[in-house]
Amino acid sequence: KHDIEKKLNDSSEHIEQIQKENEFNEINLNYLTNELIKMKEEVNYLPKVSIEQDYHPFINEISVLSLQISKLKKWKQNAITVAGGNRKGQESNQFNRPTGICIDENKNIFIVDSGNHRVVEWKCNENEGQSIAGGNGEGNRMDQLRYPIDVIVDQKNNSIIIADFHNRRVIQWVNKNQQILIDNINCRGLAMDKYGFLYVSDYKKNEVRRWKTGKYNNEGVIVVGGNGQGNQLNQLNNPSFIFVDEDQSVYVSDCNNHRVVKWRQGAKEGKIVAGGSVNQLSLPEGIVVDDLGQIYVVDGLNHRIMRWCEGKEEGEIVVGGNEKGSRSNQLHGPSNLSFDVEGNLYVADTFNHRIQKFEIVL
């Protein structure tokens, strides 16, 4: 029993070191999996021996990491069009420059149909979507939107929060009832952390501000930028989409600086975690960061999705990158991305007016 505990401790230290170095790969995965199998076999031969509860989180962590590595490894390069793709238009099976996108656990897709001034819910395997916000023409009435760009969906409360771009407001729709949360803001990207704080990027003020849920009658708190337009580490230049991780670190697509920056909570400046030159990223847009710290970013003008590991000087192409076009292995000015529960990758293929699904290779 003592020998097994020692092996568990050694493996635990090993995985902690790998995570610190951000170098977890398939070789590490196979090694640790085999070690667990050996330990399990040894336990089976011991009379009345059980692994102490303290080690269960470690074993669970191995399982989760194993799942993530297999999920986030590779995708089929030819996509399936799961929404739109019927040319530009305003019918229920069409889009006009879709931008924001998110997927629920049932694989229903929520799409910001920017040029049609609406948010659409497209249920899994359906041939058309349903407008759930806007869709009443371009305008600034409470029941209208004007070139919306991003969305957060809170299904438990039947609520969606929208960055209503040209109306310069963040507006919430709850069961067809509307409430302006934040006004007079040049909003581009939205995010919400696990504590319910709302984050909004302001592309003109070159900053990201944070508000506590339900308390929007203030200016919020600057958590990124706010030091004017520029390319210094404490500055932004036209920030677009944002992502907030479990530690409340904020990742920002710093669009005109062609980089993604990470600001830890309370930081006075950011760290470049992807891009940094136009040769690496060109007008980055949507971003998602997984639990391993891998950064998935829409490389807009290069018509591809990139993956960067924090600390690496170069990223790798995940999908696209075959010049702009409308074939199944091409994208045209994509804006955003999302993953479903199985790890399939969805891309808002903006100027092809469609949502593309790239299936995970298991």
TrEMBL record:
InterPro entries recorded: 6-blade_b-propeller_TolB-like, NHL_repeat
Gene Ontology cellular component list: extracellular region
Coiled coil (UniProt feature): 1-35
Gene3D superfamilies (UniProt xref): 2.40.10.500, TolB, C-terminal domain (2.120.10.30)
Pfam families associated with the record: NHL
Entry-linked CDD domains: NHL
UniProt keywords, alphabetically: Coiled coil, Glycoprotein, Repeat, Signal
UniProt keyword Ligase present: no
UniProt repeat feature NHL, residue ranges: 87-120, 235-266
Name of the protein described by the UniProt record: NHL repeat containing protein
Organism of derivation: Adineta steineri
